[in-house]
Amino acid sequence: MRHSPPRHPRPQEASPSERLLFGGPLRHDQGWNKHENAHLELSLWSMALRLPRLVGATIRLAARADRGALRTVAAAELGQGVSQAVGLIAINHVLAAVLAAGPTGQRLTAALPALLVVAVTGVVGALATSASTSGTGRLEPKVERVATEMYLERVIHVELAAIEDEEFHRLLDSAQYGASSARRMIKYCSGVVGALVAFVAAAGVLTVLHPVLLPLLALTTVPRAWASLRIARARYSSFHHWVQHARAGRLLSGLLIQTEPAPEVRVHGVGPFLLRHFRSMSESSEAEQTRLSREAARVRLIASALTGTAVLATYAALGGLLLTGVMRLSVAGTAVLATRSGSASLASLILQINSLYEEACYVQDLERLCQEAAERAIPEGGEPVPDNPKEIRFEDVSFGYPGTAARRPALDGVSLTIPQGKIVALVGENGSGKSTLVKLLAGLYRPDSGRILWDGQDMAGLDRAGVFARFAMVSQDFHRWPFTCRMNVAIGRTDHAVSQERLETAARYAGADEVVEQLPRGWDTLLARGYEGGHQLSGGQWQRLGIARARYREGRILIVDEPTSALDARAELQVFDQIRRLADGGQTVLLITHRLASVRHADVIHVLEHGRLRESGTFEELMGPSSAGVFRDLYELQRGQFAEDGPAVPGSRDPDGVPRRAPR
Ligand SMILES: Nc1ncnc2c1ncn2[C@@H]1O[C@H](COP(=O)(O)OP(=O)(O)OP(=O)(O)O)[C@@H](O)[C@H]1O
């Protein structure tokens, strides 16, 4: 594969890397714009309206995280601002005393008390600064943790369909950023308090000196405020536009260092290829960064020119007041000081508010995510779930995955029964809808139409947590947790303390006891490569642990999706034997497998094709001449792979109904 990416793709187009690896541009803003016209929310007015609420939310978050630290920070910031204000007023007195008429010694003596106040406010200010630094340091990480927990708590309860939804993921991306923004908001909030008090003090002094000075001071900061806001809005907008692209870039760099793709990265030479595309994707982001910083530089230059003009106007006004004798020289000195101090604190205030505003945009995303997660949460409560239902019935159930339903539903008008304490096999070709059916059965998705009835009760009204509790599941893609061997099995039931006895039983059941024996630290072996003492298992060994996990859970209904695909022949026999015994013990087993010989002992076999139920019956019934022949054809095809006379030709039979075989 030699697709060398261009060096400087235009930022608004899909780069060749995006097109080749991801099928199109990863930079859409329609998604998040759909959420309440997010661009409009960026207007100064709407943000000004929202800012107090978001600041309030952050302060509540901080109070939840550490009330004591919050009090310390608030008191320290207030102390710092007040000491600055008092200091400024004291300096005014010092200047007035020093510039007054009379002998120098007398003037200095008169200035002494005010000088003392300046010194004391300096010390108080320094102490308050250090208290604020230590309090903020204590508070910030806690706020981030509480904010992170807040969204994680909600996300773990959303429907599976939400987790698979691309829009929800995009929101999740920016909301994750929101947790660290909440942390930074604490710093900016405390900065705003300090700067605000200092500004009020300077403004008060200026107003007393001459009323025209305050509007002039405000004029000097308007261009800076405009520039900061404009830059922040551009940055936030760009962040959303590029958020998926950034995730994809991280994905590429992650693939180069993870253990799973490592063999292919080397043998297939994927490494240099991915690295090239990583570079190309990064260059696209860098181009966007360059564009943003150029725009920021331009806006700042305009702002500086306007500020300079406003400062000139202020000093010209001061000069005018002096020349016309409206203001005395000593007062003009204080005015210069107060203007400088006021303009500095106003600049700092604007900077802090601007940073607050920028971070608040992400905290707002965090709030939006929490709201969306609450709307898409698995409903709580409902009718109690039958403990051991006599039968579960699918009644004309159809379901299509979001975004694909228009093309063809994954399940189309399926009606079938799962009787209690029986082995029910689901068979059919790849993509026929078997896994989808069990996910609907377990309550992971909800039917688009039709009903799933538990002893006649519609599952839609049942308590979903109760439904989940009835199932144990070992799916095709069961998760390989990067924890110890013990936890990989015991994670099947986390609401109880780990029981060693139950672990041993589950391991024996799945043939995982042999796996555990061979591990260097037995049950305590860490099953994660790349960590100290980490160990890797073979596919079949993992599968045994997966089956042991489902057994450890002891759900009333066991779903096993391709349980033996990675097992050797002996282990496969053992697992099917155990599954049979489970059903003898009253547990309902739902078995999905492509090994058709192993469904011989199932009580009922349902055959799916393109999302539709084609036939149902026992093995003998489905193999008999009166069946539709879908299962029989599949079975003969598979058996023929081992037979001497070659595989059966699907759909082709001789006049006696015996499948014809392809010549070897
Ligand atoms: N999460 C998903 N999002 C969108 N489409 C999906 C999703 N999972 C499955 N599908 C689609 O639904 C259809 C049925 O898939 P399903 O996994 O149920 O088939 P299956 O019979 O279990 O296949 P296999 O034997 O290969 O495991 C397929 O066309 C598949 O592409």
UniProtKB/TrEMBL annotation:
Region annotated Disordered, chain positions: 642-664
Residue ranges constituting the ABC transmembrane type-1 domain according to the UniProt record: 78-358
Superkingdom of origin organism: Bacteria
InterPro entries: AAA+_ATPase, ABC1_TM_dom, ABC1_TM_sf, ABC_transporter-like_ATP-bd, P-loop_NTPase, Type_1_exporter
Location(s) in or outside the cell: Cell membrane
Residues covered by the ABC transporter domain: 392-635
Protein name (record): ABC transporter ATP-binding protein
